[in-house]
Design goal:
Structural class: mainly beta
Order of helices and strands: EEEEEEE
Number of helices: 0
Number of strands: 7
Distance between the termini: 23 Å
Helix content: under 10%
Largest sheet: 7 strands, antiparallel
Number of domains: 1
Length: 83
């Protein structure tokens, strides 16, 4: 999996079968970008995430086809430490 972050455009690709671009959500009244973060001090998967909207998100495999374009998304760096 490849992750890039450039001007809040985190992108993930996996074997060329899934694709994700997220963008900062905009205030529907003013049109200004909203810097929104969600903090979960005791979070199980993540502690701090940035709220976003999916600009493009689709997965295409023989057993799974999924399109989540234009929906809410969260961006967070997750660190895993095994046993």
């Amino acid at each position: 999996m490849i992750y890039e972050r450039n001007n809040f455009t985190p992108t993930a690709t996996f074997l060329g079968k899934s694709y994700l671009i997220i963008k900062i959500p905009k205030n529907p009244v003013t049109g200004e970008e909203q810097d929104t973060k969600i903090q979960l001090p005791n979070g199980f998967v993540w502690k701090l995430a940035e709220a976003a909207k999916s600009k493009t998100m689709h997965i295409t495999t023989p057993n799974l086809n999924f399109d989540h374009t234009g929906k809410n998304a969260l961006y967070s760096v997750v660190e895993y430490k095994g046993p």
